[in-house]
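Review this today:
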Amino acid sequence: MQKKKPSVCIIGLGYVGLPLAVQSALKGYQVYGLDNDSEKIKKINSGKSPIQEEFLEINLPKVNIHATTNAKVIRQCDVSIVCVPTPVDEKKIPDLSPVRGAVESIIKNFRKGQLVIIESTINPGVCEEVVEPLFAAAGYKVNTDYYLAHCPERINPGDSKWNVTNINRVVGASDKKGLQMAADFYENIVDGQIMQMSSIREAEAVKIVENSFRDINIAFVNELAKSFDKLGIDVVEVIKGAATKPFSFMAHWPSCGVGGHCIPVDPYYLIERAKLSGFDHEFMKIARKVNLSMPDYTIELLQDTLNEIKMPLNGTTVGVLGLSYKANVSDLRESPVKELLKLLKKNKAKALVFDPFVLEKSTVKSLSELFKKSDAILLATDHNEFKKIKPNDLKKYGVKVVIDGKNCLDKAAIKKAGLVYKGIGR
């Protein structure tokens, strides 16, 4: 007789938790989903995805997930997986209150022998210094009453190739038994490789390293963009040239800002935790400073470009293309467009916005309406629809300036049509 698969509770049904819940259900697990958003719960239970994601839209209607706001469902589960956000506050200090809240819900509905997995991105030490003490205060001992593991989430919204079904994962746990339990679970639901880490702390460090690596490299090319703009060098051409080297180079691209829940957030978790241990991450702080400066740089570029044709930014209508932080998704988390719009308002420009994935927050109904009403265009998100824009479509509506914040438009064609074009570092 085939052994019955354990029942699973996913705490937090967002970009991380909901795909994990769906994939677990597809693989035969009985899945409960816990979230405090009642509207989201209603959609999920009716088979409709609250998130625009192809994997979810195709597969959520196929499975039966018991979504609820009632934490008592944790008592019915063998595995509880925490997938809540780990944000930073306005001062960039990590906020672990969502993780604490999720763990407290597990403790209040404790089931002995349960495997508790933290998927939320956390700094090294959180499982041992935050999660374990919460259980200990309630009288529960790790590796005796429950098992604790960490498997850092790996989700890339909008990616048609890599998703929750096939991305390699790493797991660490509080002891060998918990490690094997966690590894067995992920091996059952993921087609990719599962690497068992030698400690839970090293597993916690993996995601921070992944995203800090990207942040630092993006900061490098953003700084090159600023430098090459002064030198009259097209940074995109240079990066393409460097990328022809088949080893020891990985292309990263400059832009008007870094968004998403990972890259602009995760480095602060390591920066702040290392500070408590007496180490100052100077390099990582500089990278964050550079990347945070890009919206300011972009608006300065717009202002300087308008001045070239004797137009002020004050009073000019600027059409902003995009609201989401990345192409072809509706995800607004940490989107640099929010800062771009603030800066436009501060400089007394009139901003109009269109995003085909976020129509409810767009101020115009179509691209043509945006072009018709705008003196200048600022491309902030590289949606496929925007990449198809033809220079003559801009020219016929009287657009004079194009600021390409993602370097995805045809620079030569736009300039040939008689418009003023400026990209980030080109």
Notes: The domain at 203-426 is CATH 3.40.50.720 (Rossmann fold). The CA atoms of residues 319 and 377 lie 5 Å apart. The chain has a mean pLDDT of 96. DSSP finds 16 helices and 13 strands in the chain.
